[in-house]
Amino acid sequence: MKNNQVKYAVIVAGGSGVRMGGEVAKQFLPIGGLPVLMHTLQVFYDYDTDLNLILVLPNSQFDYWEKLCVEYNFNVPHQLIQGGASRFGSVKNGLNSIPDNEAGLVAIHDGVRPFVSEKVIHESYLTAAKEGSAIAVVDLKDSIRKVKANGSSQFKNRDEFRLVQTPQTFQLARIKSAFLTEEKPYFTDDATVYENMGWEVRLIMGNRENIKLTTPEDLSYASFLLAEKGKII
Prior knowledge:
Elements: E1 7-12, E2 30-31, E3 34-35, H1 36-47, E4 52-57, H2 62-71, E5 79-82, H3 87-96, E6 105-110, H4 118-131, E7 133-139, E8 144-147, E9 153-156, E10 162-171, H5 172-178, H6 190-195, E11 203-205, H7 216-228
Parallel strand pairs: 1-4, 1-6, 4-5, 7-11
Antiparallel strand pairs: 2-3, 6-10, 7-10, 8-9
């Protein structure tokens, strides 16, 4: 199926960097000579230069981000949108910045996942165009057990579970409709908001390198990945 629909990508970056142990928010920490967030925006731009990129940040970080863009001569075109009080609110603000009469597809992606592959991005748009949604996941490698309230545990078949990543890509009209609901505690990602409408979530295979940079160890791994790709500046 050939897909000529208008494509958006909402990149959400609202982390405080607490688990990184520093004062600088994790999305701004440098890897390979550039802040993490610039690597993330770049991979979507490299996939499709006509992609409409929407970056959602806390309002308090706007000035800092704009200074970084000047400092690093970062010219990837994007629209800057103020984040909300939660991830749900931030995604909703990003979606609301898209005109209501606009048709097309939107990928929602964590700003601190800079190693998503262009192949996964492409497959997410392709599948969402056909099925309504496309959620990137990877298989579990380790055995898993369910911990019970009394401290005991029970074996679970890992083949029945997947680790969820982003992008999570949707037909635009559907996901905007889904985000009209009130935020609920079990909305852990965009797929659960979509599923809340009674719609089936479609899974696609992600790439294992597409980790969410959260701890100092993740930054070390990120530097290793960039060195392998020859992108250390």
